[in-house]
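Running co-folding for iron/sulfur cluster.
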Amino acid sequence: MELILNSDIQTSRQSDKQVRHILALSGGKDSSALAVYMRGKFENMEYVFCDTGEELDETYEYISKLQDFLCAKITWLKSEKDFRYYVDLYNGVLPDARTRWCTRMLKLKPYEDFIGDDPVISYVGIRADEPHRKGYISTKQNIQPVFPFVEDNIRIEDVERILMESGLGVPRYYQWRSRSGCYFCFFQQKREWIGLKNAHPELFEKAKAFEKIATETGERYTWNEGESLDELAQRADTIMDEHEKRKTRELNAFKGHQKLKDIWGYDSDDGEELSCNICHL
Ligand code: SF4
C-alpha cells in the first residue's frame, strides 16, 4: 500500500514531528477487518472506538474481542454530553440522514478532540467495491484519511475471508441488522427495527421513548418519517413479508453470491451510500 500524503503530513514527517497512525473502529465488519489487515504494519498504530453510549451490547462485546485479538489497547472515546442531552438541546428533534448531529457531536467531535493538532494518518475501511462511499474526510488539514482497502483492491469477499480466517467472525447483530451503530440508528431499514424489537425488546422501548408528539403544534418527532415505532410494530408481519419477497428476488438476481448476502444481510435498498462511515464501517 502506497501512502499519498498531503503537504501538512509530509512537512511533519520531514521535520521529524511524530505522525500518528489512527484507526477508528465502529464495531462493524469493514473497520474490524481493516484492523486485522493492518496489524503489524505500523508499530505505533492507535485504535479508537467512539462510543455514543447507545450502542448494542453485541458491539461492545465484539470490540472487546477485537482488542484481545490485536493485543493492543483500543482507546474508548466518549462525548462529555450524552444523546439525551442533545435531543433536549434540539427541542426533541431527532437526528436524521440530513442533519446527522449525532455523528457530529457523539462521534466526530470526540475523535477530533482526541487528535487535537497532531499530524494524523487516519485509516478508513471503505472497500474497493464501494467507490460511491466517501468516508470520513476531515476538514482539518492535520488529519489525512487513507483507504488501504481501496488501494489494495480489497472487496467484500476479502473482508469476509479476513474476519473468518482471524477467528473473529462477524458481530452477532449481523443476524438481524446490516450495519453497526446505535440501536436506534435512523439509517435502519424497517425490517431491522423489527429485528431490534425481537432481539432487544427493551431497546426498542427505549427508542420509542425518544419519539414524541408536540402538544401545541401536533408535530411528530419520530425515527421514521411519517410512522412512529408503535405504528411500525403493528405492521411487523407485512414488513417481514415484503423483506422476504425482496430477498428472494435479489438472491435470484445475485446467484453465486448467496453466501455473502446471507452473512451481511445486504439489501439493495439499505442506503449504504448515505450512511456515516465513522459509525457504520
Ligand atoms: S449510528 Fe446512526 S444514530 Fe448513531 S451516531 Fe451514527 S448516524 Fe447517529
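Result summary
Residues 236-253 form the longest helix (18 residues).
Residues 7-174 form a domain with the Rossmann fold fold (CATH 3.40.50.620).
Job closed.
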